Amino acid sequence: MKDELKPNQHSEFSTQNSILERSFEFAVRIVKLCRFLEKQDRVSRTLANQLLRSGTSVGANIEEAQAGQSKSDFIAKMSISRKEARETLYWLRLLKESDSVEADKLSEILKEADELVRILTAIVKSAQTGGNDAR
Q1: pLDDT at position 130, please?
Q2: Phi-psi region for residue 86, left (φ > 0), alpha (ψ -120 to 50) or beta?
Q3: CATH no. for 12-129
Q4: Would the pTM count as exceeding 0.90?
């Protein structure tokens, strides 16, 4: 990752920038994985469609949350993003356990999906309690 994409400190700006960049990079990886799956059997193609929808929605909702009209709007969009990240994690686990994709090829993206769920959970909780990392 380029240095300018790494957060410099634990400020609100760097946290928001970090999740924006991470979710975008995650979506790019999801798109590439789905392109691979589209070349496979019918089941893999069907799973690819589900994965593509949820995996790219994570970052899209985070982006929308940045323009939230209110704190509740921000929380709602980030909560949707968290749900989409959880769904994406489900589809990735299913691909792994069904042997649709070799487990070692999914390990990094599975880890990133899990980390995104954890980060988004923390952001939502912080926003709900009025913490500094919210908006």
Answers
A1: 83
A2: alpha
A3: 1.20.1440.60
A4: no
